[in-house]
């Protein structure tokens, strides 16, 4: 009995001393949410410095295995100290105050870090200022922890370039099954969120670049309506389809980040048009555990049978949707779905190639300092750089883009007309005709259905295959449907609690 009392006393002393000196174990921080961190910061059991130190240590330990972080911010600890000092005063910066975030390496930060889209061609370039979303992150009090790796040039250099690979970052690894694809192009953001290398991360999506890696790495990804978040300062593919959104471990964290980054940016005219979709009071109000109740969902089974264990895995989730109060239109037929999903048949390749040439050249020419000033310069650089592995992986898509006639060519006009038709007569029509709140598709499939029309989607962890490979479930909607999609996603997450920590990050 005396030994037990002495042991109990020692435990109390350890806890007291640890808290007094700000010591925090990895168990307490790992998997921590924004709300949990705020509580710990508020009761002084945690500081932003300790939080940043934790993530920097994890990056140092795990990134050699994962290749998820391309660069850490040398000023991250100074930003953490500033956040701690600010919190001791009377001022408060915002929802992300003191929260470390990794942003994808195609999002400009006006600091000591590079912005390169994973390419050696842009090393040493400088940006005119923070990207619009980074300005909003800083205003909300976030700590820019570093840059996440990605599929180089947002997966639009060539078909042979592996998902998750870049010359700067190396090959990103799926933290659940290293041999499985991490998907892209926001691979590093998704890997980092899954492996607890940051509290939250930011990605970009042109056609599946948030949805697919979120599904493949068992995290939550939100692809916002185009224009809801600013694209200024983001290395582009297509300003018609590009959007910036959060990749996090929970729906609530993703919503907190979304609330911080939406809104008008004078440097991106589309944000003024999309501002009408932003609800008064923000998106946090739609985090409802009963969010599936009363929703009408259309299940797109077209892609289900291409997945190992697909039907068995997802049938139980479809049953959950109904158990939680949703009505379901099963086997939903979306007109022109196969054409929509074929980047060549739909005309999406023609449109994106011309838009890349136009939009990327405009971005590069506006940089205050850059080794390359055009797509043609990048192609030449890649041909001379052994590290870019052009002989092995090629740059087929870049070459198509450079040889295009530009955005005013008749072929591009025809392609854009067809894409508009496919969206209006496909997803938009079936959702309106069936009065659907969302369409449901499995494991990152179906992303072109929403992407070509600039529509939103939310991906949530769902299941794991026999080999441990994650499967996500995606809820897609029409422009401005974020409130409905958040309710649905949060309701599904609350009902299933499907996500488990990745073994490679243990």
UniProtKB/TrEMBL annotation:
Signal as UniProt keyword: yes
Keyword Transport: no
Protein name, as recorded: Amidase domain-containing protein
Signal sequence coordinates: 1-22
InterPro entries: Amidase_dom, AS_sf
Keywords: Signal
Residues covered by the Amidase domain: 51-442
Transmembrane segments: none
PANTHER family in the record: AMIDASE, OS04G0183300 PROTEIN
Source domain of life: Eukaryota
């Amino acid at each position: 009995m005396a030994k037990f009392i002495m042991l109990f006393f020692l435990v109390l002393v350890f806890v007291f001393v640890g808290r007094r000196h700000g010591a925090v174990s990895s168990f307490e921080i790992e998997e921590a949410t924004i709300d949990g961190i705020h509580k710990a910061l508020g009761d002084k059991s945690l500081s932003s410095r300790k939080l940043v130190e934790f993530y920097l240590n994890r990056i140092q330990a795990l990134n050699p295995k994962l290749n998820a972080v391309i660069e850490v911010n040398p000023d991250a600890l100074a930003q953490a100290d500033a956040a701690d000092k600010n919190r001791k005063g009377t001022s408060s910066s915002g929802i992300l105050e003191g929260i470390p975030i990794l942003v994808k390496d195609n999002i400009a930060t006006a600091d000591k870090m590079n912005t390169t889209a994973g390419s050696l061609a842009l090393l040493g370039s400088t940006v005119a200022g923070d990207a619009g979303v980074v300005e909003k992150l800083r205003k909300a009090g976030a700590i820019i922890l570093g840059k996440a790796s990605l599929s180089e040039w947002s997966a639009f250099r060539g078909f042979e370039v592996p998902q998750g690979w870049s010359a700067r970052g190396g090959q990103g690894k799926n933290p659940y099954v290293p041999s499985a694809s991490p998907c892209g192009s926001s691979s590093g953001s998704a890997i980092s969120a899954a492996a607890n290398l940051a509290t939250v991360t930011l990605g970009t999506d042109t056609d599946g670049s948030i949805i697919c890696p979120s599904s493949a790495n068992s995290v939550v990804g939100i692809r916002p309506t185009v224009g809801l978040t600013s694209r200024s300062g983001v290395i582009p593919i297509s300003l018609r389809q590009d959007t910036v959104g959060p990749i996090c471990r929970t729906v609530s964290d993703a919503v907190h980040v979304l609330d911080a980054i939406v809104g008008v940016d004078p440097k991106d005219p589309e944000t003024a048009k999309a501002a009408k979709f932003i609800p008064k009071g923000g998106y946090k109000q739609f985090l409802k555990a009963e969010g599936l109740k009363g929703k009408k969902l259309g299940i797109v089974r077209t892609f289900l049978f291409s997945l190992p264990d697909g039907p068995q895995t997802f049938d139980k989730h479809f049953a959950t949707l109904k158990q939680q109060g949703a009505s379901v239109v099963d086997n939903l037929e979306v007109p022109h779905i196969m054409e929509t999903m074929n980047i060549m048949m739909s005309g999406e390749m023609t449109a994106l190639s011309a838009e890349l040439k136009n939009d990327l050249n405009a971005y590069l020419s506006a940089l205050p300092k850059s080794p390359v000033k055009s797509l043609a310069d990048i192609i030449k650089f890649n041909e001379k750089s052994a590290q870019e592995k052009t002989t092995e992986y090629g740059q087929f898509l870049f070459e198509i883009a450079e040889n295009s006639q530009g955005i005013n060519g008749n072929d591009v006009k025809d392609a854009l007309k067809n894409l508009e038709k496919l969206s209006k007569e496909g997803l938009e029509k079936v959702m309106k005709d069936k009065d659907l709140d969302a369409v449901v598709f499995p494991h990152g499939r179906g992303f072109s259905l929403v992407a070509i029309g600039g529509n939103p989607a939310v991906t949530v962890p769902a299941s794991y295959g026999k080999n441990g490979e994650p499967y996500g479930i995606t809820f897609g909607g029409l422009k401005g449907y974020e409130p409905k999609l958040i309710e649905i996603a949060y309701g599904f997450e609350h009902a299933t609690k499907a996500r488990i920590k990745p073994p490679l990050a243990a």
